[in-house]
């Protein structure tokens, strides 16, 4: 393959094209745990959609694989570049183009981080409600993985909050899909097809996101349960009550112990209760008025007690915030504790007890362990897998994913399959669906330059 | 083309395959206004996905076009069959297979009507919240058109309420997409691609829909405004308030007059106010408790007055119900009044005043008229177009759609392009997007048997 440095430099300018050793180490990986870093051959930082289009045309013409990168905090390896490839970083396309209060949308470039978008919208009393664990994540990355996070139980996932895109096809065509509109039924929904496609179909260069009103008052109730099944049985009851929690998480006792020690949390739960309980349910409520919030908190506390909770603790502002932040950083706790892999499997939420107990049994049988927490309202289980033997770990992961699928779930609820989970996806998914997805991929990307390997594996 | 009667009969049984004159008139059309009825060559009523698969394989092998039909109440002609084609009716696949309260989903066959699904879920305090105007519409039809309706402002459109499908590909493969899961990021989202594809990609044979808790208490506030722009300016304020109306509709004065007379409505609005106002905003609120409902109704009333409403009328139960039902049947009122066509264009909601005034001007200039009502919270404008000259009407429709698209909107918000709006879609949409959609269509349906003509026009 010819050296493309000059070609790509001509497009983005010398200052915005790095190659070889000049590429910083940070661009060689995302936060996926298992794969070694891999630098790309080229790193381009385009400033405009037209530059992205020219990069993709040049890459198509010369068969250069292209990987898109937001903040590099993905957990499945979808932003890990190819050694002979071009990494397109959206560092410079990081403007909030518009906060449109009448339509309750923001128009942003893909490199905007959630922290930046939050700052740009807070004064309007509006917000982008997708909160994956990492506030430094980019909106473009959220689009790529179809990010979820704790607030999905009320506000939905990225898919539900992305209304439109400007996207560059691998052929260099720049299209606009959807828009500042709440609904559309005019041809196929290209927005929804691109969301969650992990950079394999098109590169988003502009994103229209939905904003929701920020409700001023919030509080959290933490309920320890002796029996894990009771935690799960409580979830549909709480959701059916109309209380509309914006966070509904379970945290198992081992993970809670890790959070308490690493985050220096003071939750006011007596040791005796902590020692005896199997898991916690965290219910966060928000409201327009303090009166309603107090009422809802009381109702939630009563419900939780009736549903078998040992007690229900209303967390004060800072304790609640620390616990939620700690929960968001559970991945880092898992990493620090020496997890060998992570999963973010989704199952029908009523199947969580069966999934969790069986998965733990599988892990124990493999000489390892599986602990975690998760989005109880969504059936989205985050587990840290400890299993030092690589072959056993691979089999264990495969068995856990197969179990999830038998229960009607899927391998990934929000991280995507990326590079790390693609082998399991190809092993376990219906071949008819994989073949159909390959044909869809082909319809976007005939030269197969966009993130080859991701979703479909290496040829 | 050979006579396929025997082939199709073998699959579904003699009793469930009609051909020629034996096919009832009702199967020759949906509710689209402009096209003449067209009977298919064959009408099959399969009972199972496997029969649907065999029908599609036979149709692919023999090049027979296939149109799917739910209740036949679509408004864009997507269920109008081809003269040499097979119409697949889901009359017999009309079972509610499961109401799963723990996962808050229902699993239904495509022929189930919304009335039937409502009856099956009401005792659980849960409901499928997509309410297009027609309660006799089928869930399969909702999937095909990505149906919306008045409650979309709170509960979203069909796309947001369809979690999974069993679908038959034109190749005869039966796949399952999504499931009883709230989120998934594992390969491309085939569910969302099939939803809204108007029977051109695959036929849904089972649908997993989301159920929401039914809030027990509701009330409606009707606010007349002298100035139409004030109606539209009020909308974002109400949505940003956190009041979360489940219906937020505007009704122009001519449509309201038609509703009042055809529905025999008693709204308690003095004639003087009715005569002086340009449009009404209807705000329906619901709550877990009567106290909160009263409070919210009061807040809404105060807000509406501050935002320029002449008054705010809290409608009693039966008056509110009749008005909402009347609004749902606005299409029939338009039809009865001699509308020559209808549109359901969507624009960014802040662009509605500009869109409406310009569209009315275009209609007047063409010697016709444009009146209506719409989903104010969604920017989804329903207009009855009166314009007797067919050529002028065609130009007028094209001009109105072009206007909507210039404002960042789309031709159809919820009816789909079907047969009726496809010529405009092909004329006005970005050719790069149409070409991409054609390639996606090809990736599902290489023999081009599923609803040819719809979305892409006749070759």
UniProtKB/TrEMBL annotation, chains A, B:
<dbReference type="InterPro" id="IPR036318">
    <property type="entry name" value="FAD-bd_PCMH-like_sf"/>
</dbReference>
<protein>
    <submittedName>
        <fullName>FAD-binding protein</fullName>
    </submittedName>
</protein>
<dbReference type="InterPro" id="IPR051914">
    <property type="entry name" value="FAD-linked_OxidoTrans_Type4"/>
</dbReference>
<feature type="domain" description="FAD-binding PCMH-type">
    <location>
        <begin position="35"/>
        <end position="214"/>
    </location>
</feature>
<dbReference type="Pfam" id="PF02913">
    <property type="entry name" value="FAD-oxidase_C"/>
</dbReference>
<keyword id="KW-0285">Flavoprotein</keyword>
<dbReference type="InterPro" id="IPR016164">
    <property type="entry name" value="FAD-linked_Oxase-like_C"/>
</dbReference>
<dbReference type="InterPro" id="IPR016169">
    <property type="entry name" value="FAD-bd_PCMH_sub2"/>
</dbReference>
<keyword id="KW-0560">Oxidoreductase</keyword>
<dbReference type="GO" id="GO:0016491">
    <property type="term" value="F:oxidoreductase activity"/>
</dbReference>
<dbReference type="InterPro" id="IPR016166">
    <property type="entry name" value="FAD-bd_PCMH"/>
</dbReference>
<dbReference type="InterPro" id="IPR006094">
    <property type="entry name" value="Oxid_FAD_bind_N"/>
</dbReference>
<dbReference type="GO" id="GO:0071949">
    <property type="term" value="F:FAD binding"/>
</dbReference>
<dbReference type="InterPro" id="IPR016171">
    <property type="entry name" value="Vanillyl_alc_oxidase_C-sub2"/>
</dbReference>
<keyword id="KW-0274">FAD</keyword>
<dbReference type="InterPro" id="IPR004113">
    <property type="entry name" value="FAD-bd_oxidored_4_C"/>
</dbReference>
<dbReference type="Pfam" id="PF01565">
    <property type="entry name" value="FAD_binding_4"/>
</dbReference>
